[in-house]
Amino acid sequence: MWRVTRPRRFWYKVWQMASGLGGAGVPADPLEAARLRVVVATIAINVVAVGLLVFAPWSNWRTAVALNVIDNVLLVGFAVRRRDGLLARLLVFGLVTGFAELAADAWLVDFTRTLDYSIGGGWTLWRSPAWMPFAWEVVAVQFGYLGLRLRERFSGWGLAGIGLLGAVNIPYYEEMARRIHWWRYSGCRMISGTPYYIIVGELLIAVAFALLVRGFRRAGMGKTALTGIAGGAAIFASYAVAYGLTDRMPTR
Fold it and tell me: Which of 20, 68, 206, 246 sits in a 20 to 30 Å window from 142, CA-based?
C-alpha cells in the first residue's frame, strides 16, 4: 500500500504547490491554476503534434507555422480573455527573446556549421526560418513560467528541476525536427540526431529563463522587453558554452 499511495501523494503535492493551490510563501493568484493548465496544454499539444507529424512525409515549414499559431491562440487568448498581466509579460519577454535569438541561430549556422534549416523551406529571417522567433516565444513562455513556479516553491531544487526538464523536453523537438523536415544537425557530436551541445545548452537556457523572469509578477513592460534581450543573449551564451564543452574538448 505504501508503494502505491505515497508516490501519488507526493506528485499530487508537487502539482498542488506548483499550481498555487497550497504551500506557504507564494502570493495568492486566482489565475494560477488556470494559467498553469493552459501552459501545460501547449506543451502537451506540441509533444503530441510533433510525434504525429513524423508520419506526415509532406511536413515542412507550414506545419511549424500551424503549431505556432495554435500555441499563440491559446496563450494570447488566455492573457486577453482573463486579463492576465503575468502571462502578457511572459509573452512580451518570449517575443523579444525570439528575435534576439536570431544571432545565436546565425552563429550555429555560419560559425559552427552544424545547423541546417534548408530542409524546411519557406521564408527566412537572417539565417533562420521566419517562424523561428515565434517558436522561441512559446518556449520562453513555457519554461519561463514553469521555472518561475518551481523556483518559487523549491528554490535551488526548482532550478535543477526546470533545467532537467529543458534538457529532456526541448531536445525531443530537436530530434523530431529532422524527421519532420524543420531543421537538422551535422558535423558535431550527437546522440541519434541531437547534438550533445544542444542537450547541455537547453539545460542552461531553461535555468536562465527561470532566473530572468523571477521579478515578472510586478515588472513593467519596459523592463520585460529589456529582459527579453537578455534572454536572447542567454541562449547565445548557453549554446556557446555548451559547444565549447562538448565539441571543442579533446577526443582523447
Answer: 246
Domain count along the chain: 1
Instruction: Note whether residue 14 is domain-resident.
Output: no
Tell me phi and psi for residue 128, to 5 degrees.
Answer: -115, 160
Let me know: does 232 contact 209? Beta carbons within 8 Å.
no
Longest dimension (CA), the chain: 58
Say which residues have a Cβ less than 8 Å from residue 112's Cβ, sequence separation at least 6. 187, 188, 243, 247
**Residue 252, domain member (yes or no):** no
Please give the pLDDT value at position 57: 95
The Cα 247–Cα 238 span in angstroms is 14
**Residue whose C-alpha cell is 582523447:** 252
Average pLDDT over residues 16-44: 75
Chain segment 198-230, per-residue pLDDT in tens: 999 999 999 999 999 999 999 999 999 999 999
Alpha helices in 19-124 (DSSP H): 32-53, 61-81, 85-100, 102-106
CB 163 within 8 A of CB 157: no
Q: Is residue 21 part of a domain?
A: no
Residues in the chain, overall count: 252
**Count of Cβ atoms closer than 10 Å to residue 156 Cβ:** 8
Q: Residue 83 is part of which domain span?
A: 33-247
Mean pLDDT of 118-138: 97
The reply to whether 13 falls in a domain is no
Residue-averaged pLDDT of the chain: 90
Q: Which residues contact 38 (CB under 8 A, 6 or more apart)?
A: 74, 75, 78
Cα–Cα distance for residue pair 72/161, rounded to 1 Å: 25
